[in-house]
Amino acid sequence: MLPLFYIPDIPMGLGERVRLVGGEGEHAAKVLRMQPGDETLLSDGRGNWSQTIVEDVDKKSMVLRVLDSGHQKKRDISITVVQGNIKADRRKENIELLVESGVDRIVPWQAARSIAKLDEGVEKLKIAAREASKQARRFWHTEVTEVVNTNQLLALVRHSDFTFLFDSDAEARLTDFFPTHKYIENVLVIIGPEGGVTPEEMEMLSAEGAQIVKLGRPILRAAHAGMAAVAALSVALGLW
């Protein structure tokens, strides 16, 4: 599988050349040890991509020539995961799993039972999402938003076509809602923090239209539940 590198403006004309510099160029030259004749992918993270061949390499950069290019259309259905803030040592893993599962947007939520706060902001999460997107060969970046509070989350629920709040004690199953709901453009998935969602939060979210469902018998970690939910939802919606 060809390695993928992100640059803001990618060349897309057949035979066009570009020098890959900065962190991406240094990683390709020093870590991957790419050589003339090797092929790679470029993307701007907005669906545009180019397949290129390495023509020249130095210590911190390399020259690439375009062999092919195109644009990957966004999926018809967008999936957003609202993740209750979890412990710092689980955040990177959580982001990686969500990106690899194919989510379009990740919204950190400062829930009532969130043990930790994102005092340093979301920059580390955005970097983790970018690196995970490269690993997963995604031509569309997964967006990571700023942290939201519960009132802001309620507004997101109101503007979503369908919202699922996952809770281990719920009676309804995700599959109970499909294939009844076919005309959906955006879905919101809400995952609580390690301590779960409080009854008060659940009541407020449910009042705005969130459907409370369970994933199954096993109790998943807060950092892992989102990926399982997205996988099940992707099958139910016919995305997989």
Strand portion, in percent? 25-35%
**In CATH terms, what is the architecture of the largest domain?**
3-Layer(aba) Sandwich
The CATH class assignment of the largest domain is Alpha Beta
In spatial order, strands of the major sheet run 8-7-6-10-9-11
Which topology of the largest domain does CATH recognise?
A: Alpha/beta knot
Overall average residue pLDDT? 91
CATH homologous superfamily identity of the largest domain: SPOUT methyltransferase, trefoil knot domain
Number of strands: 11
Please outline the major beta sheet: 6 strands, parallel
Architecture overview:
It is a single chain. The protein is 29% helix and 25% strand. The chain is built from six helices and eleven strands. The mean pLDDT is 91.
Summarize the structure.
With 240 residues, the chain is an alpha/beta fold. It has helices spanning 22-31, 88-101, 123-135, 150-158, 199-207, 222-236, and strands spanning 4-6, 17-20, 39-43, 48-57, 62-71, 78-84, 105-109, 143-144, 162-166, 186-191, 211-213.
